[in-house]
Please model this.
Amino acid sequence: MFRLTFTPVRYFKVSILIGILVTLGIVALYETGMVHRLDVWLAALLAQNAPFPGDDRAVQYALAIFFGLGIAWTTIDINRPVLKFVIAAGAIIEVLAAVWVLGLRGIVFSPCASLLAISGSFVLGFAYSCSEAGMRKRVARAIFGDRISKRTLSAIVDSDMPLKFEGEKRHASVVVCEIFNHETLAEALPVSDYVAMHNAFLRNAADLLVDRGGYLDECDGESLRVVFGTPLADEEHAATACEAALALAERLDAVNGECVRIWHQIFDFRIGINSGELVVAAYGSSRLGSFSVAGEPVEFARRLCAANTIYGSGLLMGATTLGSVESLVEVRPMELIQRYPDDHSREEVYELLGLQGKLSEEEHARRDLFWKGIIYYRQQLWDEALTFFHSARRPDGSDGPVEFYIRRIEQLREGLPALEAS
Model:
């Protein structure tokens, strides 16, 4: 069995053009009478006792259009050359079998239009599929595989972007999602359950992010990294990444519910988002290589993901990302951290709470109280900061960042060193 993938518009247009050209050629042959003698000979050979049918051009032209478009489409769209030949040969065999079966019933059916349509469309379609434009889908599939969605693959094929990827700088956003309790899960579960649980996490996370336009750059047993804004440029990459990350958190919470039901365990997953200028290229060697991204923003996204475990947050984002989506999302400040080892300036990182307008009144009020607590904290006004943090506290104490700052202030007031994010 073979599977047709989403047909790019470029290939659909070419298939229609080939189908029209082949059909017009068959119409010209019929109208000039060039296939009449062949039809009479076939009628005598296949159904000697049956009368030759009258004017059945409408049927023949309909079959020519059907086979012309169908064979052109499959020949161009399918990547594997062998399957192209198999489908065309199968169509020819079906036509000849239909002629033979109808002949046994005394019905004369001319296969000329169908055979000409199949062979003509196959030849033209195969020739196009061997051209640079016709090979774009095969080349793109070889480079990206299933790391991009079918919609993205189609857009790449339809575009004029080169597929060599020798290297360029591109502004993009990186989403990193990682499991931080894998050691605990390894001790609590049999190996098969441990693997099944992690695969449920990876499959759901990868499918969601890729379906939303991301490129699955890295995926291992405990984490994945998805890039938005490449291989196709996207000016809205930061907004798309934020929306996808929020949807991912919701999806993985649902997966955790199933994990509790099946294995009585949950993932401790955290997410980091960062945007910046990356180097995108095809990296590696002839033995092992792939399209990927590189640059400090990639590493900072991973650091943000890990920093969630310090603050008790679930989704941290960098200041560059926020600068692109500030009017679209709800955030609260988390920390001023030193981003570069040789630069002592500090950069704000933020917790992404949701999309603009999606927080409840209670969540808005708690967010504002937390923000005021941060302001007093940075002014080292511990009492005032604690007042606001306690007001922002949830009754069940489930807000990790609030609990983190309450503990930190208590440590500072007692003269104990406070844990810093690095």
